[in-house]
């Protein structure tokens, strides 16, 4: 870092305004060859704007950008590519209908003299690129059948297929489970060893300690600090980021005595694989009022599927014995689930929870319109507005008003709108899928506080998270899933069972059954009546039947390798 | 990460509250201006003839069946679907109405509900195909366009059926006379209440349909659900909305409105032609789009469609009065649609300008500094 050669990349005095908003002013960023620079800041601090300038998305900006000491104008993504700058966006830029190989070489397909695509060469190169990232995927698989973690690595492969010198990764791990994060970090270290400079945006501080060499912190469009990673602390970074010390990120009060009978109890939850997704093979769980139960596991372990099954998303395809508030419950549709007092904070707020073009009010009241209804099925808009305003205030949503399109809010505030929507239905059981994914640390702490408050008020919460510190910090009990089975249960209270720590959770999350073992248990399985499809063997695995079986093998081998390392 | 679109809308959202509440009632401001411009053009070129009450009444009457179709199509477009079959459905309903009158001498109060029922049944099939069989609505309703037209022509043996039925005394029969009241000016609905001749029924019907469906979309839970399904079907489903029901319902309503427009159109032309309503779906879609509906779903209002329909109506009328040939009328109408869409989304134009500028290697200096 002290070399006399000019840095690989220097951004000097960068400023950028949007109508009515000064997004950035006088920001400097320096990246040396082989260095990982972390870019840190709350949502709305200007990280994405800065990186979009670097990627040539914003043609108009003030300030200068120097590449190896030479000023370079970056006015289009093409300019950026020409100077060896590649960006992996938070929302992945991949085409779901195309194959993995077609995505990697999109727009740069190797062609023959006649202009036809050399498919085989493309696929071979893709396989090699992916292998270099420790990913064994058939290059012909349609991207839509790949999991988010896999897509992330496909984006990396795509960047590598270019001659990339500077790689920008915008929250690459927000959708990844911890083991997958480690794999990605190994990949990044490989890149820096080759002299690539990496700009790494993440909200997870513990991750930065592991991967970053230096860190640049932004707040409200201004650079508030530059530190060598080794010479700083989490506390300092948080202070630079939020401008105030953050006393408690996990405000969970000591576990309450769960004397009450469980609000929800599930026995033998089964789900056939839907569209190539993970299947569930008989899961038992209970959630008591006032209890926060966590679901841990790797990508594809079936965590989301558990929540979605309970919420009626899969209708009758999800089978098992469900008891809700002492009464039998049969998840049929989300509408019925909501009427029975369930609410779901879905995994992907943009794709699954919000109508982005519609107003905050529209979104917040959408699931609870019945509460403001008249006999004519019209909506009492005053009452609706009052209720929505109440929730928005209680959740401290920062928005110019209720009539602003939800898409204009920052990630954290969007997530709070989703929470407001769920809470307006007055749920007795709140299902939360990655409730704090991709939101800044301030909003995160607020959502944690809210979870604690809801639990105190007697709401039962079942939460999925890929961030182990979050689960350990917030949950009274953590259930670990692996390949659609329960592989561990951990407690907050040492008196009740094994205590959760990251290592034991990870071990349980990777407690895969070997290939030889799986069919044996499937046969022995006592719950498998004639109506219930045997795990793996059956199920209407619509179009994914063939692809599924081809996937199981290599992936598993791959994981074993990793856990051994 | 604020895109130009977001910020443009943000600026709009900051407009004073009153204006913001009123604007949607007129559709977007731009289309309202367009309406005024066309009106001015009419006055400037053909002053008295244009402003004549009979002329305006006739103009709206001529377009009202298409306007009614446009309301149904707007509903479908908001759910991110499209209904191409409305013209054919209207044609079928007008033929059915004429035949009920001509062959069975049925009274108008039976004919209209029956036609609406027939239209609704066709619409239900559209909706069922779209949501249960997962056929894309473009394809499903394109097929229905063909099917309904074929049935129409088969049923009528390819011949027009008149709706002015003379009795033995040489005068119109009672049922025929009241049926004609649906579509001809003169002694009409609300006689004495509003003017000596009352209100021209097609105009009344169009306005009434607009009011009812405006309230349905803006005030009811169903209306919210329609927008949610169009804006994000997954989020709608996870919010407890029965998406299948909503999709089937909007197609059924669209078909029902086509069934309602049928008898009106037959009465207006005093006969049902086997090709009646051919191409009307395009006018209906154009009205919705001019009114601000987006084929991507989630956006659109009945008020906007109302203004869009008026623009097309007056445009037809002004061009007709100025003896512009039919061929050029089509060209102008198409251009207006493009123009209207660009006007409503100025960001599209700005973006295109920037892209072109960059392609030719120069960024306009005005954009270098200011955004």
UniProtKB/TrEMBL annotation, chain A:
Pfam family, one: ABC_tran
Compositionally biased residues, Acidic residues: 556-565
Keywords: ATP-binding, Nucleotide-binding, Repeat, Transport
UniProt domain ABC transporter: residue ranges: 9-245, 264-508
Region (Disordered): 517-565
SMART domains, sorted: AAA
Transmembrane segments: none
Top-level lineage group: Bacteria
GO terms for MF: ATP binding
Stretches with biased composition (Low complexity): 522-540
Listed InterPro entries: AAA+_ATPase, ABC_carbohydrate_import_ATPase, ABC_transporter-like_ATP-bd, ABC_transporter-like_CS, P-loop_NTPase
PROSITE patterns attached to this UniProt entry: ABC_TRANSPORTER_1, ABC_TRANSPORTER_2
Keyword Chloroplast attributed: no
Name of the protein described by the UniProt record: Sugar ABC transporter ATP-binding protein
UniProt source species: Streptomyces physcomitrii
Automatic annotation (TrEMBL), chain B:
UniProt-listed InterPro entries: ABC_transp_permease
Main location as per UniProt: membrane
One Pfam entry name: BPD_transp_2
Annotated membrane topology: Multi-pass membrane protein
Compartment(s) of residence: Cell membrane
Coiled coil spans: none
This protein's UniProt keywords: Cell membrane, Membrane, Transmembrane, Transmembrane helix
Membrane spanning residue stretches: 29-47, 68-101, 107-125, 199-217, 238-260, 305-324
PANTHER family per UniProt: ABC TRANSPORTER PERMEASE PROTEIN YPHD-RELATED-RELATED (PTHR32196)
The protein's name: ABC transporter permease
Lineage: Bacteria, Bacillati, Actinomycetota, Actinomycetes, Kitasatosporales
């Amino acid at each position: 870092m002290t070399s006399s050669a000019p840095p690989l990349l220097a951004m000097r005095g960068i400023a950028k305004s949007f109508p009515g908003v000064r997004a950035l002013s006088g920001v400097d960023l320096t990246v040396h060859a082989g260095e990982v620079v972390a870019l840190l800041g709350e949502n709305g601090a200007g990280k994405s704007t800065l990186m979009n300038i670097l990627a040539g998305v914003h043609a108009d900006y003030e300030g200068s950008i120097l590449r190896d000491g030479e000023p370079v104008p970056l006015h289009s993504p093409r300019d950026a590519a020409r100077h060896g700058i590649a960006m992996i966006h938070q929302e992945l830029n991949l085409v779901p209908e195309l194959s993995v190989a077609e995505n990697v070489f999109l727009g740069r397909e190797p062609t023959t003299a006649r202009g036809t695509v050399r498919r085989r060469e493309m696929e071979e190169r893709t396989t090699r690129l992916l292998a270099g990232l420790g990913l064994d995927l058939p290059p012909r698989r349609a991207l839509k059948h790949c999991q988010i973690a896999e897509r992330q690595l496909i984006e990396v492969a795509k960047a590598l297929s270019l001659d990339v010198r500077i790689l920008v990764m915008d929250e690459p791990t927000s959708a990844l489970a911890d083991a997958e994060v480690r794999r990605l970090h190994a990949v990044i270290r490989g890149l820096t060893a080759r002299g690539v400079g990496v700009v790494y945006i993440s909200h997870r501080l513990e991750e930065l300690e592991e991967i970053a060499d230096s860190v640049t912190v932004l707040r409200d469009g201004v650079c508030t600090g530059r530190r060598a990673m080794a010479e700083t602390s989490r506390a300092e970074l948080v202070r630079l980021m939020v401008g105030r010390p953050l006393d408690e990120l996990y405000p969970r009060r000591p576990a309450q005595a769960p004397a009450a009978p469980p609000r929800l109890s599930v026995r033998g939850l089964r789900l056939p694989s839907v569209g190539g997704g993970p299947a569930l093979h008989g899961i038992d769980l209970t959630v008591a009022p006032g209890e926060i139960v966590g679901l841990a596991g790797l990508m594809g372990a079936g965590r989301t599927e558990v929540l979605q099954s309970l919420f009626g998303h899969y209708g009758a395809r999800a089978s098992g014995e469900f008891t809700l508030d002492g009464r039998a419950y049969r998840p049929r549709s989300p509408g019925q689930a909501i009427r029975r007092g369930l609410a779901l904070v879905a995994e992907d707020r943009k794709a699954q929870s919000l109508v982005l073009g519609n107003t905050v009010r529209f979104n917040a009241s959408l699931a609870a319109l019945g509460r403001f209804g008249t006999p004519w099925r019209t909506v009492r808009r005053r009452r609706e507005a009052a209720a929505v305003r109440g929730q928005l205030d209680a959740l401290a949503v920062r928005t110019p008003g209720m009539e602003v399109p939800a898409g204009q809010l920052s990630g954290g505030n969007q997530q709070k709108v989703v929470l407001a929507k769920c809470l307006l239905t007055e749920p007795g059981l709140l299902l939360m899928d990655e409730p704090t994914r991709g939101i800044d640390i301030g909003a995160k702490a607020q959502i944690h506080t809210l979870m604690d408050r809801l639990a105190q008020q007697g709401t039962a919460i079942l939460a999925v998270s890929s961030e182990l510190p979050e689960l350990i910090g917030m949950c009274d009990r953590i259930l670990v899933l692996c390949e659609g089975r329960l592989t561990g249960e951990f407690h907050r209270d040492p008196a009740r069972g094994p205590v959760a720590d990251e290592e034991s959770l990870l071990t349980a999350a990777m407690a895969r059954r070997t290939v030889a073992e799986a069919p044996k248990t499937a046969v022995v399985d006592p719950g498998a009546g004639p109506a219930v499809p045997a795990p793996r063997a059956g199920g209407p695995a619509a179009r994914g039947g063939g692809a599924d079986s081809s996937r199981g093998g290599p992936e598993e081998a791959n994981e074993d390798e990793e856990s051994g390392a | 990460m604020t895109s130009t679109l977001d910020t443009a809308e943000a600026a709009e959202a900051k407009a004073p509250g009153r204006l913001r509440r009123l604007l949607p009632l007129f559709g977007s401001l731009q289309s309202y201006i367009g309406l005024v411009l066309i009106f001015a053009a009419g006055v400037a070129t053909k002053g008295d003839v244009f402003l004549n009450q009979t002329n305006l009444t006739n103009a709206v009457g001529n377009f009202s069946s298409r306007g009614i179709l446009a309301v149904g199509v707007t509903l479908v477009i908001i759910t991110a679907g499209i209904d191409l079959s409305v013209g054919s459905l209207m044609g079928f309903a007008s033929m059915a109405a004429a035949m009920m009158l001509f062959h069975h001498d049925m009274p108008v109060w039976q004919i209209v509900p029956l036609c609406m029922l027939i239209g609704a049944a066709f619409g239900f099939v559209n909706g069922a195909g779209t949501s249960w069989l997962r056929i894309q609505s473009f394809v499903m309703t394109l097929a229905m366009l063909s099917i309904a037209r074929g049935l129409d022509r088969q049923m009528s043996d390819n011949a027009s059926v008149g709706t002015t039925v003379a009795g033995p005394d040489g005068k119109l029969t009672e049922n025929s006379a009241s049926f004609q009241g649906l579509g001809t000016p003169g002694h009409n609905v609300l006689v004495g209440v509003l003017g000596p001749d009352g209100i021209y029924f097609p105009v009344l019907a169009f306005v009434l349909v607009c009011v009812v469906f405006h309230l349905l979309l803006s005030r009811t839970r169903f209306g919210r659900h329609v927008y949610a399904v169009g804006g994000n079907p997954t989020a709608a489903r996870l919010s407890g909305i029965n998406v299948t029901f909503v999709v089937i319902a909007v197609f059924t309503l669209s078909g029902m409105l086509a069934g309602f427009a049928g008898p009106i159109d037959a009465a207006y032309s005093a006969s049902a032609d086997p090709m009646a309503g051919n191409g009307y779906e395009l006018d209906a879609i154009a009205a919705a789009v001019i009114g601000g509906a987006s084929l991507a779903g989630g956006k659109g209002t009945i008020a906007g469609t109302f203004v869009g329909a008026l623009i097309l109506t007056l445009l037809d009328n002004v061009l007709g009065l100025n003896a512009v040939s039919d061929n050029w009328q089509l060209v102008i109408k198409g251009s207006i649609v493009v123009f209207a869409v660009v006007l409503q989304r100025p960001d599209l134009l700005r973006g295109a300008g920037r892209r072109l500028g960059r392609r030719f290697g120069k960024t306009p200096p005005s954009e270098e500094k200011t955004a």
